[in-house]
Write a structure and sequence with these properties.
It contains 32 helices and 23 strands. About 45% of the residues lie in helices and about 15% in strands. The strands form 5 sheets. The chain has an 8-stranded mixed beta sheet with strand order 3-2-1-4-5-6-7-8, with helices on both faces. Strands 12-13-14-15-16-18-21 form a 7-stranded mixed beta sheet, with helices on both faces. Bound molecules: nicotinamide-adenine-dinucleotide (NAD). The site of nicotinamide-adenine-dinucleotide (NAD) has 22 residues, from helix 1 and helix 3.
Length: about 750
């Protein structure tokens, strides 16, 4: 079965997300709704979406729009029809009747329902029709969330379901997990339960919402929105509807009921329009007083808002053992929440799936957790867990584990896919070396370096690991969300605060040395980025010999935003790429000016399609929809380059002062228009100095080391200014740039 055309019915949040993502996969798609105006508006929203749902906005017209009255004949041409209309069974049944009357023989029909069992969805279908009907439950936003739950019915043509799964894996890049027909499937059943436990325990233990979010967040390997922040993001009213549907579907004995009871404060919030970020505010709100914006938090006891307090829990790394053993309210809360999630998740085996690993992977792919409940159990330790737990409702899984006390119960990961993923390989690879910032694995005849810091920010140790790992072909790849958000600025500022600029200089030199080493060492180095690949992260990638990039990537040199310039080879490599163009051969000013614009504005690309015109990525770099495949593709690159030879060193002929006059003119205009202020000019001048080649003329040839030196000098000059330090501190504290 080949899927060459798809029709999506219902152009709301999910339908438009699915259509956009099919467009990303170059599959012609038609989006139908009650009226064409609705689907047209949905298409406009896709175009404007942030973060963008499309890899390539210029393809927007590949999404055709229409309505279900006049354009239903589109269905007859589709190989797959996705229903994503409102969650109402009567409406869905009506739609299926129409679809099955019109569809091409054998075409797949699926529903995106989050809560209606397939038994009920398909109750009016004939045996023949049931063969081709299933649930394909995507997560929002479709481009970015990895999870796709597929629910079969007993009549399904299994070959067809498998080929749909394969299509969704390869073409759409999804982690497709087949699950049983049970309420909320895997992700929502466990994810929503976890949210409810985190919330009800916070109420019970009288934690403030900031305290709960500080624990049920990064320290547990959960996104930093925490629980109350996540409620605000999803919509407090929507969550109430989700809970109602669980209550309706689940048997009374299910522990879900205990955590899904209506909370008077939440009821009041909904009634008064405090439905979260989309409403007047929620658990958090931004309040404007005297012209300044203040973030406020809700007191769970009084229902009053107060200025939100930052809770600092020292946790650079997820360390569940230390967290649950803390002798304070945070430790107690963490243990209570984690143990209850483990108890609940284990009680669902084998009812919702026979593979406990599927639940962990669903939490990773659908909720961005770094570890699922069973991996949490593995980390806490089986003996430890049973020692610490007082009472628990027996279930087969835990009873069995209590008997065997098998600490190594886990076994293989990512069972849902045949792809040889990093997650699987890590389980069998030898851990060769490692430090606080990175881990080196040896697998067969190559090494893997995985960064392990927050957002994979880079420091001395990260560089050390990279350098050490070049004794074999090397793949730089990671499981966590980001490839690397860049150099660790807090680490740099610790030195700056002590006026220890020598240490910063040494670090930058070591960074440069390592990147040069990556590029010219005997064995090939491959970077496999996904997510943020910024600043220093980009510099590591760009100085690797090959790149296998995920299509969800945010890539760029953003140093100027904090008053710095790229100093790990970013300026050098971007110059080299732009010098290697027809225009640059004709005009020696072309490349320096082009790179001046790109780095000066800190331009970023949100997909490989956007990255190529900026030359952040090259046409020959591999672009891959499925993140799970990054390792396989990297391995294939190694295989195809068995006779690898390190590249020749770059040489540069740059115009020196001559191009600076042009850059100055640009700066003057921007300064007069107040696009940049005094310090912005200072930063841009330093950047210009590097990109012009410094004290040179076009007939002189500069080496890579000459450019590294220019980068280093400019960087050091800037980091020593109070204004740059101010900007860095501001960004570290607020996550936002400071213009000065
Ligand atoms: P939505 O309310 O944003 O959009 C529903 C769309 O269906 C609307 O544009 C509406 O005009 C259209 N519609 C209604 N009746 C129709 C009909 N008879 N024919 C054609 N179009 C019709 O809803 P949504 O959030 O996109 O949810 C769609 C489905 O996906 C639901 O089954 C929901 O449970 C499920 N789902 C939602 C999410 C989520 O995060 N929103 C996640 C996963 C699954």
């Amino acid at each position: 079965m080949k899927i060459k055309k798809v029709v999506v019915i219902g152009s709301g949040t999910m339908g438009s997300g699915i259509a956009a993502h099919l467009c990303n996969a170059n599959i012609p798609v038609t989006l139908l709704d009650l009226k064409t105006e609705i689907s047209k508006l949905a298409r406009e929203k896709i175009y404007k979406s942030k973060p963008p749902l499309l890899l390539d906005k210029s393809k927007i017209d590949n999404i055709k729009v229409g309505n279900i009255l006049e354009d239903f004949s589109e269905v007859a041409e589709a190989d797959w029809v996705v229903e994503a209309v409102v969650e109402r069974i009567d409406i869905k049944h009506d739609i299926y009747k129409k679809i099955f009357k019109e569809r091409k023989k054998g075409a797949i029909v699926s529903s995106n329902t989050s809560s209606i069992p397939i038994k009920i969805l398909s109750q009016n279908l004939s045996e023949e029709e049931k063969k081709d009907f299933c649930i394909t439950h995507f997560f929002n936003p479709v481009r970015y969330m990895g999870l796709l739950e597929i629910v079969k019915n007993e009549n399904n043509d299994l070959d067809k379901i498998n080929s749909l799964k394969k299509f969704c894996e390869t073409e759409l890049g999804k982690g497709a997990i087949i699950c049983n027909d049970t309420p909320g499937f895997l992700g929502n059943r466990v994810g929503v339960f976890a949210m409810q436990i985190a919330m009800t325990e916070a109420f019970k233990m009288k934690l403030t919402i900031e305290e709960a979010d500080a624990i049920f967040g990064r320290p547990m390997g959960i996104p930093k929105t925490g629980i109350f922040g996540l409620y605000d993001l999803i919509g407090i009213d929507l969550m109430a509807d989700v809970l109602k549907s669980f209550i309706k579907e689940l048997p009374e004995t299910d522990k879900f009921h205990e955590v899904a009871k209506e909370i008077p404060l939440i009821k009041k919030l909904i009634e008064t329009g405090y439905t979260g970020r989309k409403g007047k505010g929620g658990f958090y709100r931004v309040n404007k007083t005297n012209g300044t914006k203040v973030m406020e938090a809700l007191n769970l006891e009084t229902g009053e808002y107060y200025p939100s307090k930052k809770i600092s829990i020292k946790s650079e790394k997820v360390d569940l053992q230390s967290l649950i053993n803390r002798n304070d309210k945070y430790g107690k809360y963490a243990w209570s929440v984690i143990s209850k999630i483990i108890k609940y998740a284990s009680s669902l085996i084998p009812g919702i799936t026979k593979e406990f690993n599927d639940i962990d992977e669903a939490m990773r792919l659908g909720f961005n957790w770094t570890k699922g409940p069973f991996e949490m159990l593995e980390e806490i330790g089986v003996v430890n867990f049973f020692d610490k737990i007082d009472e628990y409702q027996k279930n087969d899984f835990l009873e069995n584990l209590a008997k065997t006390k098998n600490e190594k119960f886990y076994g293989q990961r990512q069972k849902y896919t045949d792809i040889e993923t990093l997650g699987k390989v890590k389980k069998t690879a030898t851990s060769v070396d490692g430090n606080n910032s990175a881990q080196i694995y040896r697998f067969n005849n190559y090494n893997i370096v995985e960064f392990t810091t927050k957002a994979n920010a880079l420091d001395y140790d990260s560089m050390d690991a990279l350098k050490k790992a070049t004794d074999k072909p090397l793949i730089i790849i990671n499981e966590s969300m980001q490839f690397s958000a860049g150099v660790n600025l807090s680490y740099t500022m610790e030195f700056a605060d002590k006026n220890d600029f020598k240490s910063i200089e040494n670090f930058i030199k070591y960074f440069q040395e390592t990147c040069k080493h990556l590029k010219y060492s005997k064995y090939p180095v491959i970077s496999a980025p996904s997510g943020l690949t910024l600043g220093g992260g980009f510099e590591v990638m760009v100085q690797s010999n090959f790149v296998a990039s995920h299509t969800n990537i945010v890539v760029g040199l953003v140093e100027t935003i904090v008053g710095l310039i790229p100093a790990g080879g970013g300026c050098k490599e971007m110059l080299a790429r732009w010098l290697d163009t027809e225009n640059a051969r004709k005009d020696p000013h072309y490349a320096p000016l082009k790179v001046f614009d790109i780095i000066g504005y800190g331009r970023t690309a949100t997909s490989p399609v956007e990255a190529e015109p900026l030359k952040y990525l090259k046409p020959e770099d591999k672009k891959i929809m499925n993140r799970n495949s990054l390792l396989e593709v990297s391995k294939k690159i190694l295989k195809d380059n068995a006779d690898f030879k390190a590249p020749e060193e770059l040489r540069f002929n740059l115009p020196g002062k001559k191009v600076l006059t042009e850059m100055d003119k640009i700066l003057e205009k921007l300064y007069n228009e107040k696009v940049i202020l005094d310090h912005g000019v200072e930063v841009a001048k330093e950047l210009g100095h590097v990109l012009s080649g410094g004290d040179t003329t076009i007939d002189k040839t500069l080496s890579e080391d000459n450019l590294f030196e220019l980068e280093l000098n400019a960087f050091m000059k800037l980091i020593e200014t109070k204004k740059t330090q101010e900007r860095i501190k501001h960004t570290l504290a607020t996550g936002k740039p400071l213009i000065n």
